[in-house]
Amino acid sequence: MTSYTTRCLAAASILVVVLALVLKCLEPTTTTQFYRLIVWNCFVAFLGFSLTVYGIPRTKHKFPPCLQGRDQGRKGTPQENTPVPEGVGIVSGAMFLVCLILCQLFYAYHNNSKGTERLMEYDAALLTICFGLLLGFCDDVLDIPHKYKFFIPTIAALPLLVSYRGVTDIVIPKPLRFLIISAADDHELTFVGDLLNHFAPIDMASSGAIVKLGLFYHFYMLLLSVFCTNAINIYAGINGLEAGQSVVIGLAIVVMNCLELTHENDPVVFTGNDEQHLMSLIIMVPFVATSLGLLCLNWWPARIFVGDTFTHFAGMTFAVAAILGHFSKTLLLLFVPQIFNFLYSLPQLMRIIKLPRHRLPTFDPKTGLMRASRLNDRKKITEDGEYNYHNLTLINLVLQIFGPMREDKLCIYLLILQVFCCGLGLMVRYGIAGYIY
Amino acid sequence: MTSYTTRCLAAASILVVVLALVLKCLEPTTTTQFYRLIVWNCFVAFLGFSLTVYGIPRTKHKFPPCLQGRDQGRKGTPQENTPVPEGVGIVSGAMFLVCLILCQLFYAYHNNSKGTERLMEYDAALLTICFGLLLGFCDDVLDIPHKYKFFIPTIAALPLLVSYRGVTDIVIPKPLRFLIISAADDHELTFVGDLLNHFAPIDMASSGAIVKLGLFYHFYMLLLSVFCTNAINIYAGINGLEAGQSVVIGLAIVVMNCLELTHENDPVVFTGNDEQHLMSLIIMVPFVATSLGLLCLNWWPARIFVGDTFTHFAGMTFAVAAILGHFSKTLLLLFVPQIFNFLYSLPQLMRIIKLPRHRLPTFDPKTGLMRASRLNDRKKITEDGEYNYHNLTLINLVLQIFGPMREDKLCIYLLILQVFCCGLGLMVRYGIAGYIY
């Protein structure tokens, strides 16, 4: 168990290394104007981190009783009834928004032919993230029913879609093109292609490589926002996991943005559009910084909980960055653990198997370890005779495979899995994409 | 005491009349595209009103204990300890944001040469209002210290200023021009004019009529946002006053927008710029509708409190509408009671006279009437020998002048004052402005 100061210093060192790498890597390739913006962005991000680690210990006593939770992972220990402030993500979220607003001041002067469009997208991004934060905080305070949680992010994402000025075409991977267009004769549409053509026009000039999705693409982006907002929320519950996974995914996006920005002249593997990736980078760097600050206090043994506030706005931030950065398909490659957790949870989410109030792993006060939880663990919800399943979550699955372990070790295992999946995702995107597109 | 249903029906009738008048008055002068947008806007506003009056009674039991207040105006009655949900402005605020987002869908298709700029301003407006709502709700839940309440609206207004594409010049009233430019000889600058010219260039071609304020104008807009956000917040505390004054000011702005939109060919008295006033109208109509819905439940005897949530986002909404509608000076004419209340409160706000926790009027349970409160009314805060002042608020002043009265009568008096001031403000703007500009 490390002290808060040690953790903060460790996090600050990691952050400084990351920021230095970003600055080092982007210096040779970008214009002076771009580079100044990135320097300012990194500075603001570090400021946001500092204010977060400074601010949270000084505001957490302000949280009212309705925002004080009990740590389910300390049941049976003397700390069982220690109230832990919930929804502290509001502090890092507010800092993050302030960082974004400060960066916008510079971004506004970064004029070019499409300056107004970019600024509009920036405003829409801020709005969507702010709405996500508001939704999350309301959820923590007022406990919004589940049905609205799918409805509200849809509304919140609408301004972003209205302001979206990017392409709405997708490129069909080469191995799948035969489904749409016959390779043999003079590029005629197949039956599937013909059917598809009724809904989304296929660009015949590109030999069926490009399908103009139009409104369907907007619909896909809406779904992405709803998915991201909820995906992190259901892959949560142990100290440090929510903020940890967000930091890992955020870093993966930063790496991707840097790759794209340094390879802008290679439009085969890379999208060759630097402005989108610049915007995504500007959003992601302060996000990683403030989430890292939050993680310092949320790491086991947690003195604060991030709450739905954090999971909602973090998910929305990823969706926004992916939509404005035009890498919404790549984002799904970084979300593999979340997607797996969602699919694996489906039988419970769809109530085919009973869904208890909490599906967290069960803490064993004798050994101090976490073990996979079963449906009946907390409250009897199935008949005695009935088969008592494990709760269907990725966290439980890891515990079933590796056996009981302490909460921080479990979190590290899950974060390693996230790092592995994100690394693999980036390799797939940049290693294989060149062959199939 | 009327039932909730009666009040809702009365409010709905008022709203329908207002919407019908707006539609009737704008039909002959605007283009079909504009008019369709306004029809959609009115429809969405009515929907927002209906959802607010439907939603609040169904969500108010969800408010946790930290968001349950006691009505200070019922002290000594059996209802003294009945908890009243606080911060219910979040419901009407969320509905209002949803209305604005739905209107944006139409607005986005209303393309013209400046379509992107307008859409950007719309996004920035939504963002600023959303931030105001978030700030207000956080204040209700976490009780933000006063010093930050001046700082945070400043940050929230920055995206709006960055996205602001309007003029930053002001026109000097004719009777004051002699201060800047000498009328006698060949239009030379006076000493004051010369001094001013160092900071803000004076347009000599217009004979000193126009001063280019530039960044100073941005600074003024920032101050306006901070002022509006806090002005309504300190002119509050009796049932129905916060929502009531907002509805009155909102209606005055709607009237002004309609006047401007129907007189767009008369650029002497009117600004002659219809797009700005269209945007302000689109923001104000749903705001009036949702606030009217809130007022139904907040009217004496209040079953809900609007909370700082409402006062903050309402103030921010006015500031946003005024900035984007380019009538920030006229807005101050509509805010006369708030400005008077602020100036009158200054000795207490600046701690020259002691400031108790609450400055609400004191309720006398024997008579059931409110009377002007004194500094010592609730808790002894000054020495016995010292002179015990009345609290310096406009509400108390009205009670000192007209004597004790019931809370709803007091609210009606204050609202009549607001209507009178707003009417006078509009008359000054449109009656006298033609002579002095």
Describe the structure.
2 copies of one chain form a homodimer. With 437 residues, chain A is mainly α. Helices cover 62% and strands 4% of the residues of chain A. Chain A is built from 14 helices and 7 strands. Chain A has helices at 4-26, 32-59, 89-109, 115-142, 146-163, 191-199, 215-234, 241-262, 274-298, 307-324, 328-334, 336-349, 394-402, 407-436, and strands spanning 68-69, 84-85, 169-171, 202-203, 210-212, 362-364, 369-371. A 3-stranded antiparallel sheet of chain A has the order 3-5-4. In chain A, strands 1-2 form a two-stranded antiparallel ribbon. In chain A, β4 (202-203) and β5 form a beta hairpin. In chain A, α1 (4-26) runs antiparallel to α9 (274-298), α5 (146-163) crosses α7 and α8 (241-262) packs parallel to α10 (307-324). The radius of gyration of chain A is 23 Å and the shape is globular. The mean pLDDT of chain A is 87. At the A-B interface, α3, α4 and α5 of A face α3, α4 and α5 of B.
Helix content of chain A: 55-70%
Give the N-to-C terminal Cα separation of chain A. 49 Å
Order of helices and strands of chain A: HHEEHHHEHEEHHHHHHEEHH
On the 0 to 100 scale, the average pLDDT of chain A is 87
Largest sheet of chain A: 3 strands, antiparallel
Shape of chain A: globular
What structural class should be given to the helix and strand makeup of chain A? mainly alpha
Number of strands of chain A: 7
Per DSSP, the total helix count of chain A is 14
- Strand portion of chain A, in percent? under 5%
> Whole-number radius of gyration of chain A?
23 Å
Chain pair with largest interface: A-B, 40 and 39 residues
* Chain oligomer state: homodimer
